[in-house]
Design goal:
The protein folds into two domains: 114 residues, no CATH class; 131 residues, no CATH class. It has 15 helices and no strands. It starts with a helix and ends with a helix. It binds zinc ion.
Length: 262
């Protein structure tokens, strides 16, 4: 029995316990994993996690704003954006903007730009390689080249510049969409192998000059990575979050009880 993201959002909107139970068991682990990545020092910060869940639970939540039937990966991408926005990142000591990156990294291809961009998202070469379907050594090589190119554009530089500027660059990239920018579906089609060579070529060309789409594509690859590494919570593990959101205890009837006993 498949319970889709569309059904979950519908049931959450109707304030049905099934919807919120599904949200808690499937997406609390994803938020935790993303927190551990972006704010390792706050990975166990229960107040922060609770705050994020309460925000999603509110009637004005992003969850209920979608004009299209929500897809799981879109949902997780939104959840990740909300979580990152809640982390008050310190300003980078040496600040660089997209304009500098555009000038410095002009010679890089789409995939090379993504390899560099994943550094702003704090992913190591070993993590970014599989997401981009290239070897970690290739990512490392591209990053060394990108570092040298950036170094040539700025007055002061250090190797951690991209990671330190990550939150600000992410915000800037998210804000600069153009009318040629691609929808989430275009990136998911690449992930799912449903894209044509022609589409792929157009995408390559657009992403060479568009950080908004480089960021968007990287975040969709990140979502796939987060979902792959996440295990749903058990009913007992979900309990504190159910209490937090005031969700009624699930009825132990029918197939759910049978599965519970297995
Ligand atoms: Zn774009």
């Amino acid at each position: 029995m498949i319970y889709t993201c569309y059904e979950m959002v519908r049931d959450c909107r109707d304030r049905l316990p099934e919807g919120w139970m599904h949200f808690i068991s499937h997406y609390v682990p994803v938020v935790r994993q993303a927190l551990a990545h972006y704010a390792p020092g706050r990975a166990g910060d229960r107040a922060l996690l609770d705050h994020i869940l309460v925000t999603v639970h509110k009637p004005e939540s992003f969850m209920f704003q979608s004009t299209e039937p929500p897809e799981e990966r879109w949902f997780v991408a939104q959840l990740r954006q909300l979580m990152v926005a809640e982390l008050a990142a310190p300003a980078a000591e040496i600040s660089i903007g997209l304009e500098t990156l555009t000038a410095a990294l002009e010679p890089l291809t789409m995939t090379e730009k993504q390899a560099a961009w994943f550094e702003t998202m704090r992913y190591s070469a070993a993590q970014a390689g599989p997401m981009l379907r290239v070897s970690p050594e290739t990512v490392e090589k591209v990053r060394d080249r990108a570092a040298e190119l950036i170094r040539g554009q700025v007055d002061s530089w250090r190797r951690t510049l991209l990671a330190e500027n990550g939150p600000a660059l992410g915000r800037e990239a998210a804000a600069v969409a153009t009318h040629d920018c691609l929808p989430t579906k275009a990136f998911l089609d690449v992930v799912d192998g449903r894209t044509t060579w022609r589409d792929r070529e157009m995408m390559d060309r657009h992403l060479r000059t568009c950080w908004h789409c480089v960021d968007h594509f990287c975040r969709m690859l990140e979502v796939v990575h987060l979902l792959r590494g996440s295990q749903p919570l058990s009913e007992a593990e979900s309990e504190p979050f159910r209490t937090l959101l005031g969700v009624a205890a699930p009825k132990r009837t029918g197939w759910k009880r049978l599965i519970g006993r297995a």
